[in-house]
Write a structure and sequence with these properties.
mainly alpha
Length: about 140
């Protein structure tokens, strides 16, 4: 009985060793390509910049804030659907970025002419920008 278990274990290890392995860098490169990460991140950053400009302009109407921040929220939620990445650190950073951008988009949408709410939204959007920059640097280093 023990001999059979030993033979099965050895056979399993041999088969596992024959299997193809993918390096973590290669897996992350594939994820970047398959998800269109570079274009997606550029779009989100551009959306966030539009939202920041709208929030900083006191004459921006609530309807315009709804439009600009709605676009940011849509793109952020779409990007979040591509998580996780094959790299845990990149996943953590991107999750933080998307959470901050999403919070900022919601705050922006509800800000209206309220200066305090606009300031809170700006803080969330800036935090998202910092996190996505860090995530992009991590992805570049890991690939």
């Amino acid at each position: 009985m023990i001999r059979h278990v030993g033979v099965l274990l050895a056979a399993g290890l041999t088969l596992a060793a024959c299997g193809a392995t993918v390096s973590s860098a290669s897996a992350l490169r594939d994820w970047v390509s398959q998800t269109g990460y570079h274009n997606t991140s550029l779009a989100i950053v551009a959306d966030a910049r539009h939202a920041v400009r709208a929030l900083e302009n006191p004459s921006t109407s609530p309807k315009m804030l709804h439009l600009v921040c709605g676009v940011l929220l849509y793109d952020t939620e779409s990007a979040n659907a591509s998580l996780p990445t094959p790299d845990q650190q990149a996943t953590t950073l991107l999750s933080r970025a998307y959470t901050d951008f999403g919070a900022g988009a919601h705050q922006c949408y509800d800000a209206g002419a309220d200066h305090v709410r606009r300031t809170a939204a700006l803080g969330s959007l800036r935090a998202g920008g910092a996190a996505i920059a860090e995530a992009t640097a991590r992805i570049a280093a890991a690939t």
